[in-house]
Give the backbone structure.
Amino acid sequence: MSTRRSSSLLDVAVVGGGMVGAAAALALARDDFHVALLEARDPAPWKPDAEVDLRVVGLAESSISLLQELGAWATIRAARACAYRHMHVWDEATGSAIDFDAGDRGRKALGWIVENSLVQQELFQRLPGAGVMLRSPATVSAWHADAERSTLTLDDGSTLHARVVVAADGGASPLRAMAGIGTRGRNYNQRAVVAHVSHERPHQATAWQRFLRGGPLALLPLADGRSSIVWSLPEAEAERILSLSDADFLHELGAACDFRLGPMLATSRRAAFPLHMQLATSYQAARFVLLGDAAHTVHPLAGQGVNIGLRDVTELRDTLRQARVRGADIGAAHVLRRYARRRRSADELDALSFDALARIYAAQWPPVAAARALGVAALNAIAPLKNLLIAHASGR
């Protein structure tokens, strides 16, 4: 697909049309910036009669607020989305548990489980009406910047010029490499096995998460009554789980979640993806910023990756909007530095917090496990602290 609006100089060129990149392009265009979005491949269409996409996301309150602003949330919610009102987290080693309930904060839901492809489609459908110049499929072969503009050279030989280039092209980000920005982090030597499963008991609009010796297992409620699983496992164990027959897989999964939803009855196909934490060493270069997974990838145990990326979008939009009001050049280093400092600080805190949580729950030494159990019990008993955790996860 391709839509064009001619201009010699764009305000913003966004590279990468996943959920975060598409949201950035749409948010900026709706703020009357002249925007182009470049995506390497046309998104696969979401179909209501097709199997639920294995890639699902738990949207937090801040993400839903942004989608509402963009005019996409009502359609997404009506299509196929499931609210979760409760969360139950428990530890295999100690039995300690903590519960979160939306009613504790006067909310109807803690979040919503939605398919990635549905969100992406609804954002893409709104791009032409907002005036976004969409180039898909399109691949960037080179980038450079001077004092006045960034220039992208595409694989077809054409060029685009913009005051700001936004790299939202994923964790492996070719644009990040072109800008000479490095990364740091660690490989968890794990893979997350994902599938959708049906079970004997209803999921009760509850997100269930159990910390096991090999890694956390999450069961997320789907609109059709099934649950989507994200099971973090050492690589060899993930391979074994993927190779099991459906019957054996369902039995092992049921045991892993302590049969909280009764016996597991049926499963979709299974897939797996590697787990690592990665943080860009900088979010900024000349007339260039990073967004979403290009800037940060985090452990999935808290389900916050996309939510953090959408908070990047809100911060970038607000930063460029304020610069325009002041009459400043939106691509000036001091303008982009404001976005980069704020989001890098917040994103790094989140990423390291999730990493610390994963390490704490992976520790099996009895004194550590006992201290962990005491801490969880105390947290579960102190409502204000629990509410602070919920507020932070929701982006408020």
User: Anything to note?
Assistant: The mean pLDDT is 89.
